[in-house]
Write a structure and sequence with these properties.
Layout lengths: L19 H18 L2 E2 L1 H7 L8 H14 L3 E8 L9 E7 L1 H4 L5
Antiparallel strand pairs: 1-3, 2-3
Length: 108
């Protein structure tokens, strides 16, 4: 495994999960919790808040994961915002919120 570069605060970033499905199982509980609150969020905000590991292919896996949660009826798209990810260059990102069913605890 290649050496990891420390973050600006001196800590090492979380190691990526070995494969996409394992990563999904690891990060899903944080998104279920966020969906149950009904608050608006981006995937990066939840990942940063819970110090979640990056997926094996970050450029595609974050979007695929959010779309799978939407297909499952857990979250719904509610707009766009500028990315708060340091490497995101303020690009447009999707904003999500938990569905009414998720907020009521009927989906997860």
């Amino acid at each position: 495994m290649p050496a990891q570069q420390p973050q600006l605060d001196g800590t090492l970033p979380p190691a990526p999960a070995p494969d996409y499905l394992s990563w999904c199982d690891l990060v899903r509980p944080a998104f279920v919790t966020a969906a149950q609150t009904g608050r608006r969020f981006t995937t990066y905000e939840i990942a940063e808040e819970h110090q979640l590991p990056e997926p094996p292919r970050p450029c595609t896996h974050w979007g695929n994961f959010a779309q799978s949660l939407a297909r499952q009826g857990l979250i719904e798209h509610c707009g766009y915002d500028r990315s708060s990810r340091p490497t995101g260059e303020k690009s447009a990102v999707a904003v999500w919120r938990g569905t009414r069913a998720a907020q009521a605890g009927h989906r997860a």
